[in-house]
Amino acid sequence: MAAALGVPLLDAACNGRGHPTVKMGSLGLASRPDVQLYQSGVGDKVGITVHGNTVITSALMRAASVQNGGLIMACRGPLPASLVIEAGALGAISYQLALGRAIIDAGASACVVIEAVLDQTRGRILAEGEVISNTVEYREGFDVGQVAVRSASGSRVALGVCNEYMFAEAEGIRVATFPDLLATLDPMTGGVLAIRELQPGAPVVVIATSKRNLPLGSGIFDPAVYPDVEAAMGAELAKYALDPNA
Fold it and tell me: What's the CA gap between 188 and 202, in Å, rounded?
């Protein structure tokens, strides 16, 4: 939008990665009910503007998203520059552009593209094989479920989903948890595979990189943002997400 409108763009974001709820990108304001802000959203069927603290307004925006079929385009603020400096994911835009350039420079070879992604993100391959199940379905504003992958060696990796990949378990052992970044790539092209494309039998490469390798905003480390996602998934997240050594 900044490029289209010709307005300045800060090299910062609420987060350097996607997150399933508005609160997770709220720069830590989910735990500050005293801070009032506006949130506005628009979709095919609904337009909404609300005013209040982050928790209340985020719940209303989620409800509007459900009424619009699961998605609205939204923004919030105004926020002081000091909060962005203190709590934002500084350098997030540069990080994303650098990853895109690395993918483009890698050329057409899938192996080289995947290797470039791993180098740029300092990531690792969790599994390379085929999808054996995909139970992800839309429920109350979230896409929730699991995608299971069996590697060529026969080992099984399960990816827990709540709009994003939220955790990975290898043979039942947790090996990555949001805000670690998990992604699924096409071994034939190196391109990203969306969750809906991961049907049984589809070939896939699952990669992960630690949260320590990503520019992240402080909202990710606010304990108040995890209970509703944990309830939707029936899985523990905060224990791992808030542990700096996990």
Answer: 11
Contact present, 92 and 81 (Cβ < 8 Å): no
Residue 107 lies in a domain: no
- Tell whether 201 and 223 lie within a shared domain: no
3-state secondary structure of 14: coil
When divided into structural domains, the chain yields a total of 2
3-state per-residue secondary structure call for 150-167: EECCCCEEEEEEECEEEE
Based on its alpha-carbon atoms, the radius of gyration of the chain, rounded to whole angstroms, reads: 18
DSSP 11: S
- 3-28 pLDDT, tens digit each: 899 998 889 999 999 999 888 989 99
CATH number for the domain that contains residue 159: 2.40.390.10
Within a domain: residue 116? Answer: no
Opening angle at CA 90, ends 166 and 223, nearest 5: 40
Longest dimension (CA), the chain: 53
Its pTM stands at 0.90
What domain range is 193 assigned to? 124-210
